[in-house]
Amino acid sequence: MGERYRNRIELLQGTLDLLILQTLLWGPQHGFGISRSIRANSGELLQVDAGSLYPALHRLEKQKWIGADWQISENKQEVKVYRLTAAGRKRLTEERSRWQQISEAIGGVLNPAKKEGAS
Amino acid sequence: MKQWWNWRKREKELDKEIQHHLRMAATEREERGAKPLEAESGARREFGNVGLVKEVTRDVWGWRWLEDLFEDARYGLRVLSKNPAFTLAAVLAIALGVGINVGIFSVLNGIALRLLPVSRAHQILSVNQIFHHHVSRNVHNGSSMFSYAEYLDYRDHNHVFSGLLAYEPFVEATLGGGHMQPLVGALASCNYFEVLDEHPAQGRGFVDSDCAAPGQNAVVVISDDLWRGTFAGDASLLGKQIILNRTPCTVIGIAAQGFTGTEVVANAFWAPVTMQKELDAGMDRLSDSNMSWLALLGRVAPSVTIEQVHADLSVIAARIDQSHPGRITSLAIARATLVGRPDEREFLIPVASVVLAAFGLVLLIACANVSNLLLARASVRQKEIALRLSMGASRWRLVRQLLTESLLLSAAGGVLGSLLAFWSFAGVAHFVIAHLPKDFPTLALNLAPNFTVLAYALALTLLTGVAFGLVPALQSSRLDLNTALKGDGALTGSGRKSGRVLRNVFVGAQIAVCMILLLATGLLLRGLYNAQTLDPGFDVKNTASTFLNLETLGFDENRATAFVGSLRKRVADLPGVLEVAQAESAPLSNDHSGDHYLIPGRAEKVAMEYNYVSPEFFSTVGIPIVRGRGFEANDWRNGTPAILTESTARRLWPGEDPLGKVFHDRETGGLPGTERVVVGVAKDASVSKLGEMDTMYVYFPAAPTRNIRSYLLIRFQGNVRDLNKSVREIARSLDADVPVQVTKLEDGMEVWRAPARIVTGLSGALGGLALLLALIGVYGMVSYSVSRSVREIGIRMALGADGSKVMGHALRQAMRPVLIGCLIGVAGCAAVSWVLSSLLFGLDAHDPIAFVSVPVFLLMAALVASYIPARRVMRVDPVVALRYE
User: Fold this and answer.
1) Helices and strands: H and E segment counts in chain B
2) Can you tell me the mean pLDDT for B583-596?
3) Mean pLDDT throughout B146-156?
4) Is B24–A32 a contact, with Cβ atoms under 8 angstroms apart?
5) Percent of chain B, pLDDT > 90?
6) Which residues contact B440 (CB under 8 A, 6 or more apart)?
7) In B207-261, at which residue ranges do the beta strands (DSSP E only) sit?
8) For residue B190, which of A99, B206, B625, B861 is within the disulfide window of CB 3.0 to 4.6 Å?
9) Is A8 in CB contact (< 8 Å) with chain B?
10) pLDDT exceeds 50 at position B443
C-alpha cells in the first residue's frame, strides 16, 4: 500500500519542493491551484499527482517554509491557501542555486566537448 | 487529550482540502464541456485513491503510532464486545482488585498524604527537630517537638516565614458545668488562626495580648461541632464562660464549620498556650526549656523554597545547640499533613505497608485470574494470530495489539473499581469508625479523591493491564505457524504444553495467595474466639470500675483524699454493692506502670509491672490468694509487704517457697531502694494484657492518701447502668465537676478486642474476595480445559473408557496446581503469621486447628469449583465430539 506514491515522492522530492516554492513566489495559492500552475508553466509537461503534492505541502508546512490560512472562496467554501514564509523565501534561493549547479553539472556531463571548447 | 483533539481537527481539514481539490478539478472539466457526472468521476480518476493520498499525507504528520493505537483500540473493542462473558468477568475481577486498593489508598491519602485542610495549604510547612547522640530531654508528645522557649526563638529570629505557630496537640480536658464531657483540643500560640488563615466564623481568634503572660487570659475558641452539639448552637455563648478542667474560660470565638485543627484527631477547643498550667494542673511545661511538647507550623511566602527555610532555621538550631553542650540538632522540614511528624511516620509506614501488601495480594489474584482467561482465550484465537503473523505482521506489532486489549480491559475495570471505591469507601470508613470503642476520639479524615488518589488509580490501572496482559501476549504471539494453521495441534490436546504450565502456575499462585489471606483470617477468628471465651482469671461480670483522674482536675492530695473517702463510703452503702476497693490501675485498663527491681543473687535487674492496691482489691475483683496472706489495713505503713503472682514467684525463685523472700526497688539518687518482703502469692490473672496470664507482676499496698489518680473498683449485684447512675449522683453531690463513668470490667475487655475485630473484619473481607476470585479462576480453568479436550475425551469414550474415570482424570489434573498452591500458601503463612501474634490473645501463631481446617476448607471449595465444570465430561457424546469442528 502506498508504495507507488512513496517511490515517486522520493524521486521528485527536491524538485517538487522547488517547484512549489517557486509557484508560491507569485502569491498565495491553494493545492489545486499549485498543481495547475506547475502544469501550465511547464507547458503541460509536468503533471504533479495528488499523492505527491499533498504530502509535500504538509511537509513544507511542518518545516515552516510555507504557511497556510483558511479563506472563504467566491462560492462560500472554506479553502486552505498556502503562502511563502520568510524562511521559505530563503530556502527557495538556496534550492534555485543548487538546481542551477546540478543542471550545469549535468549539462557539462552531457556535452563534454562544448565545455572543453569553452575553456 | 489535546493532541487527540488536534489530530481530529487536522483530519477534518485534510478532508476539506481534498474535497475542494476535487470540486475545482470537476469544475474545470465542466468548463471544458464535460457533463457534471463525467466531470466528477474524471476528477476522481485523475486524483487517484483518496484514502491512500490521505494516508501518505498523514504519514508526514509523524503520528503514525497514534493512528495505530486507535486502530488497535477499535479492533480491541470489537474483539471484547464479541465475547461479553469473558469481558464482563475480566472487568469485574479487575474492578474488585483495583477498587479496594484505590479505596484503601484514599484512606492512607486522607491520613498521611493530603495537605492540611486550610487555605493555601501548600505554603504550610511542618518543622521538626531530630536530636543526634544521646540527649537528655523531657518528652511530652513526640521527641521531635519543641519547647516554648525554642519556639519563641524560631518565631522571632527566622527570615522565611510570614508566620510561625506552635501548638500542643491532643490536650485532654473535661468540660464541666452541667455538660460533663471529655474533650480533645489544642493549646495554641496566639497567631494560630492568623497563620492558618482560618479565622473563627463567630467572635475572634487569639490576639497577642491573650498570650502576654502565663495564666493571664483564660479564653477559648470552640469548634463548630462542639457549639452545635453540646451547646445546641446557643447564639449567646460568645462572651460566656465554660469550664475546662475546672478552669473557667471565656468563649471568644467559634471556629469555622469543618475546621478541626491540624491533627488526625479533631479538636473541640483551642486555648492560648500560656494557659498550659491552668488546664493541666501540676505540670509546668511552659517554663521547661528542655521539654518537647509543641508542634511547629509555619507559612512561607510563595517564592520561598524548603531548602531556603532549612538553611535559615538551621542557623537558629546551631545557635541553640551552642548553649546545650553535646547537643546536635538537625531539622526536618516538610509540607504539613495530618500525620507527618517523624515519630508518627515511624509508626504509620510499617502499618501502611502491611495493609497495602494485603490489599495488593487480592489485586494480584485478580491479575492472575485475568491472565488465565486471556491465556485460555489466546489459544482459541491461535488461528487468527497465526494468520496475522503469516500476513507479515511483526511480533512486536501483535504484542502491542494484545496489550492494547489488556489495557482496554484494565481501563474499564479501573474506572469501574475507582468509581465504586470513591462511592463506597467513605461509607465503609464511617462504618468502621462507628464500630470503634465509644471513647475513641473523633477523627478528621477527608477521604474524597484528589489528584494523588486519581494518579494512584491511573498508575495502578496501567500497571494491572500490563501485569496481566504481558505474559499472555508474549506467550500467544510465539506460535508455530504450521501446526496452528492446520488446527489440529490446538484441538487434540488441551492447548500447548507451555501454555498449560503457565495456566497451572497462575492457578497455583491464586490459591497460594488466597490461602495466606484465609489462614490469617482463620487465626484471627480463633484468637477472637479465644478472647471471647477466655477466663481472664478474675471476675469481669460482677465487678465495675471508674477512673478518678483527680490530678488533672486540679485536686491536691488532701482534697482528693476527702473526696474519695466520702465517695467510697457512700458507694459502699448503696443497695447491691458488695464491696469497694481501690487500685492505681484497674485490671485490663491498659494503664500500666512498671519498674526494675533488684533480686538478691541476681546480677540483672528484673522488670516487673506493679500495682498499688487497697486491702479489699483481691476479694473485690475475685483474684484468690493461693499462698500466704492478702494485704491488711496497716501494711502500707510498714512499706515493705508485696504480693507476687504465681508465675512471677515461680520465675523469680524456681522450686523455692517465695514467702518471706526479699527484693529491693532500684536505687534512686544513690540511695538504696525500699526493701520488699513477699507476704503472699496471688493466682495468675490476665490483668495487664488480655490473653497474657504470666506477666511479671507485683502488688504493693496503697496508702489511704494515694487518691490523686486511682480506679474505684466495685463488686456489685444487679444492673451496671443503675449502679452508674447512683454513683454519678453521689459524685455530683460531692463535686459537680468530677466526671464519673462506671463500667463493668467486661467492657474493658472489649477495648482489647476491638483492634483484633477490625483486623479480622478486614482480612475476612479480603479473604472472602480472594476466595471468590480464586474459585472463579479454578472453575474457569477446568471448564476451559474440558471444552478444549472434547475430542480427546470423545476418542476415549468411543474406545470404551468409563465416564467417571475420564472425569476423575480431569479432576486430578485440575487439583494438582491447587494442591501445590495450597502447600505454598500454608508454608508462606506459617512463615509470616508471627506478625499477628499481638492480636491472637495468646493463641499460638501456628495454631493447628486453623492450619488444618482452613486448607481443608479451601481444598473442598476448589474441588467443588472444578467438579461442576468437569461433570460436563460425562455428557460428552463420542459421535458429536469426534465431528467437533
Assistant:
1) 27, 23
2) 84
3) 94
4) yes
5) 34
6) B433
7) 219-222, 241-244, 247-254
8) B206
9) no
10) yes
Instruction: Report d(CA B531, CA B526) in Å as an integer.
Output: 9
Task: Give CA–CA dist A113/B534, Å, rounded.
Answer: 118
When pLDDT is averaged across residues B125-134 and rounded to a whole number, the result is: 87
Among the partner residues A9, A49, A78, nearest to B16 by beta-carbon distance: A78
Residues 39-68 of B with CB under 8 A from A: 46-49, 52-53, 55-57, 59-62
Shortest Cα distance, chain B CAs vs residue A109, angstroms? 35
- Check CB contact under 8 Å for A6 and B20: no
Question: CA of A25, closest CA in chain B: separation in Å?
Answer: 21
A residues 12-31 near B, CB within 8 Å?
30-31
- Closest chain B residue to the Cα of A78, Cα to Cα: B16
Among residues B261, B258, B263, B202, the alpha carbon closest in space to that of B235 is found at B202
CB contact at 8 A, B623 and B579: no
Distance from CA of A2 to the nearest CA of B (A): 6
Distance between CA atoms of B389 and B399, rounded to whole angstroms? 11
Three-state secondary-structure class, residue B283: coil
> Nine-digit cell at A53?
503534492
What's residue B669's pLDDT?
64
B660: left (phi over 0), alpha (psi -120 to 50) or beta: left
A55 contact B CB<8A: yes
Q: How much is the pLDDT for B489?
A: 43
CA distances from B260 to B170, B266, B293 (A): 12, 5, 20
Per residue in B716-760, pLDDT (tens digit) is: 999 999 999 999 999 989 987 788 889 898 887 877 777 777 778
For B217-261, what is each residue's pLDDT tens digit?
899 999 999 999 889 999 899 999 998 887 889 999 999 998 999
The answer to whether the CB of B126 falls within 8 A of the CB of B299 is no
- Prediction pTM value: 0.67
Inter-chain residue contact A2 with B16, CB threshold 8 Å = no
Question: Distance between CA atoms of B528 and B841, rounded to whole angstroms?
Answer: 7
Please give the residue of chain B at the shortest CA–CA distance from A35.
B21
Residue A119: per-residue pLDDT: 41
Q: Do B20 and A31 touch (CB under 8 A)?
A: yes
Cβ-count burial of B694 within 10 angstroms (0-12 exposed, 13-18 middle, 19+ buried)?
Answer: middle
SS3 B48: coil
Type of residue at B852 = V
Q: Which residues of A touch B48 (CB under 8 A)?
A: 49-51
Distance from CA of A33 to the nearest CA of B (A): 9
Q: What one-letter code names the amino acid at B111?
A: I
Question: Is the dihedral angle over the CA atoms A96, A101, A104, A105 positive or is it negative?
Answer: negative
Query: Which residue in chain A is spatially nearest to B53 when comparing CA positions?
Result: A51
Query: In degrees, to the nearest 5, what angle opens at C-alpha B362 toward C-alphas B528 and B764?
Result: 20
Local confidence band at B314 (pLDDT 50, 70, 90 cut-offs): very high
Q: How far apart are the first and last CA of chain A?
A: 51
Say whether B52 and A6 touch across the interface (CB within 8 A).
Answer: no
| Whole-angstrom distance, CA of residue B694 vs CA of residue B65 | 70
Question: Among all chains, which residue has been given the C-alpha cell 465430561?
Answer: B873
Q: What is the pLDDT of residue B66?
A: 73
Domain chopping of chain A, boundaries: 3-118
Contact A32 B48 (CB under 8 A): no
Within its chain, how far is the Cα of A73 from the centroid? 24
Contacts of B67 (CB under 8 A, 6+ apart): B58
Fold of the domain built from segment(s) A3-118: Arc Repressor Mutant, subunit A (1.10.10)
Which DSSP helix (H) or strand (E) runs through A81? strand A78-84
β-strand partners of B329: B131
| Rg (alpha carbons) of chain B, rounded to whole number | 37
Query: B111 and B339 in contact (C-beta within 8 Å)?
Result: yes
A55 to chain B: which residues are within 8 Å by CB? 56-57, 59-60
The amino acid that residue B407 corresponds to is L
